[in-house]
């Protein structure tokens, strides 16, 4: 099993990466340094997934600066993803958002730059603009204009590859029909309870590589409840893990990798960071893959119901 997937623009993306959502500034700095040190020692993590909304790009940049300065990893061996936020959907603000991320991340180019969502917010300096009643203030900027801004970033050499996140097939096709530079990546929630086989098949037919977030069910996300289904408690997943002498997390990650889906997983725990990467020394057989496929129940951990009245709500 290759540790990279091919992109239609001729570049590569690692099949497994490190997510930074929900990491505080200090946690992000500590964890990212650990990841890159481990990456050199074990030829493992070399992809880090960031976002403006995670509020830790500066910490990630500090860690980047440290490991690059010490020669732990070369810039060309490091793959960095970040995302254009909802308040930056007009063409000009996309370019400004990209430049700000570059400054915070302390790098000269972004490897993979994604539109975080097709939904736009009012353009301002606040992360989530709200009215006097606490309601989010949206914009109706067409994400095709946002994509033009993404192409500007690409043409300016600020980013190497551009893509989408949280878009549905119809929205992706609309971008494909209008674009001058094709999206090469789609980052979406994907796990055994939400396999999204049709969307995956669609992307594959268009040469778009899928990147999974929430592959472990994001059990510590702020809006989680005790009543929701847990992937870590699933008997099928645990039986398969026991059979291979692996953890449930390792099986969940391996499942995506064998579907030719790249994965980003977050942890601030050193032992889990190492354990999560240890998925290249075993293989799920066809029966086990089918058993996990059958767990699909179209269940989203990331439904974002507060956005459901926006005209570009993707779910």
How does this structure look, described?
- The chain is α/β, with parallel strands linked by helices.
- The chain has one domain (4-226, 255-283): TIM Barrel, CATH 3.20.20.100.
- The chain is 37% helix and 16% strand.
- It has ten helices and twelve strands.
- The protein has helices spanning 25-42, 57-69, 91-105, 143-155, 169-178, 197-205, 235-244, 248-258, 270-277, 286-293, and strands at residues 4-6, 12-14, 16-19, 47-49, 79-84, 110-115, 120-121, 138-139, 159-165, 185-189, 209-213, 262-265.
- The strands form three sheets. The protein has an eight-stranded parallel barrel with strand order 3-4-5-6-9-10-11-12, surrounded by five helices.
- Helix 2 (57-69) crosses helix 3 (91-105) and helix 3 (91-105) packs across helix 4.
- Belongs to the aldo/keto reductase family.
- Keywords: NADP, Oxidoreductase.
- The record marks 83 as: Lowers pKa of active site Tyr.
- Substrate binds at residue 116.
- GO terms for molecular function: oxidoreductase activity.
CATH architecture: Alpha-Beta Barrel
Name the overall outline. globular
Note the beta-strand portion.
15-25%
Number of domains: 1
Superfamily at the CATH H level? NADP-dependent oxidoreductase domain
- Major beta sheet, specifics? 8 strands, parallel, barrel
How many strand segments? Answer: 12
């Amino acid at each position: 099993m290759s540790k990279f997937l091919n992109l239609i623009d001729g570049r590569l993306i690692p099949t497994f990466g490190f997510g930074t959502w929900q990491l505080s500034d200090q946690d992000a700095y500590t964890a990212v340094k650990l990841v890159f040190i481990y990456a050199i020692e074990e030829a493992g993590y070399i992809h880090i997934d960031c976002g403006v909304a995670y509020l830790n790009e500066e910490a990630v940049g500090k860690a980047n600066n440290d490991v690059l300065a010490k020669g732990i990893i070369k810039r060309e061996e490091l793959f960095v993803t970040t995302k254009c936020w909802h308040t930056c959907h007009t063409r000009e603000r996309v370019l400004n958002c990209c430049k700000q991320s570059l400054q915070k991340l302390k790098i000269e180019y972004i490897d993979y730059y994604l539109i975080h969502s097709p939904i736009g917010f009012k353009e301002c300096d606040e992360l989530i603009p709200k009215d006097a009643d606490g309601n989010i203030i949206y914009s109706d900027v067409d994400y095709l204009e946002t994509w033009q801004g993404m192409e500007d970033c690409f043409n300016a050499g600020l980013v190497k590859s551009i893509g989408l996140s949280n878009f549905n097939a119809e929205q992706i096709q609309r971008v494909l029909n209008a674009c001058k530079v094709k999206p090469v990546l789609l980052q979406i929630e994907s796990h055994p309870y939400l396999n999204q086989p049709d969307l995956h098949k669609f992307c594959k037919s268009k040469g778009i590589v899928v990147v999974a977030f929430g592959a472990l069910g994001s059990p510590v996300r702020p809006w989680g409840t005790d009543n929701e289904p847990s992937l870590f408690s699933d008997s099928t997943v645990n039986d398969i893990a026991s059979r291979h002498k692996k953890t449930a997390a390792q099986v969940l990650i391996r499942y995506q990798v064998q579907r030719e889906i790249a994965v980003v997983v977050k942890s601030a725990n050193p032992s889990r960071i190492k354990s999560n990467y240890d998925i290249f020394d075993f293989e799920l057989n066809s029966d086990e893959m089918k058993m996990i496929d059958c767990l699909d129940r179209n269940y989203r951990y990331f439904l974002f119901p507060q956005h459901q009245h926006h005209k570009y709500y993707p779910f």
